[in-house]
Amino acid sequence: MLTAKAVAHSNIALCKYWGKRHGAAAELNLPATSSLSLTLDALWTETEVGPAIEGQDSFVLDGTEHHDDAARKVFAHLDRLYRLASGAPRPPCRVRSVNHLPTAAGLASSASGFAALTVAAAAAFGVAVDRTGLSSLARMGSGSAARSLWGGFVRLDRGIRPDGSDCVARPLLPPEHWDLRLVVVQTTAAKKPIGSTAGMERSRTTSPYYNAWIETSESDLDGAERALADRDLPALGRIVEHSCFKMHACMLASDPAILYWNGTTVEVVREVIALRSRGLRGYVTIDAGPHVKVLCMAADAEPLARNLRDVPGVIATQVCAPGPDAHSEVLA
Ligand code: 2P0
Known about the structure:
By secondary structure, this protein is α+β, with helices and mostly antiparallel strands. It is 37% helix and 23% strand. A hairpin with a 2-residue loop joins strand 3 (58-61) and strand 4 (64-65).
């Protein structure tokens, strides 16, 4: 085994993934909806994978050693990757990861985290697959991670084949296609109340809106793809907000309800709508957490961020541009 380092950038879904394909092998982690995302330059994870120094697995995230569920997921993912490179049992590994974004607060740390882990481990173990193959492997760690293999605008198709072979991500357009920005508006420093995997299952089994959410999501992607190609922000923005609010309606109709928002989330959404009516064009999206992300043109990003920083309860804003592909480097 070698030691390798990888960097993967986070991504935010403009058309959302919420729900897993029912009846498929859990190991494959197949989504029930296709999704379309924007990779972000300013939020990323850096991960190093190499042989363990003291003969046992260790996972250090942001300087702290973890022995929790997060660590178990990391090592299960390494087992999966090592099986591809060699039939032999996986030797103990040392994983060191640094998140340049707030972890587990709905800012997509699992997307960049599992993408970086996959790319670093594939380089360390000598897994001979192309970027599409790496993306499918990353998806088995976390669905959104499949999209972080590429920069710019990325589509992940849910596919229909039982073996998941047509559930693949692909780059639609490069970062330089369109000078868009995403203003990330943080509304709390707290961690989210329920993880995505459990939340999705609760929505599937209890939300009366779940089937409607799944059935209407594909056409959102096709519309978003056209609006992207045409660089039509109002058309894209309308679809982005519709996809987001449909997903949250489905979450809210789960039993018990899944409510990721706080009061500030609502106030920020209202302010974005008010600013839009005054000519500052921003469109909101919200993930499995309370933060609001605002899609806009580059020229409007700073004025939007300045206005949104003044909403009571907002703790920070960050302007992100379209980001690059994930990449790795062998260190030793
Ligand atoms: C997304 N989310 O498309 C959606 C929007 C959250 C809301 O992908 O269970 O952490 O590990 O496959 O990737 C979050 O889900 O879930 C997510 P798993 P993941 O970005």
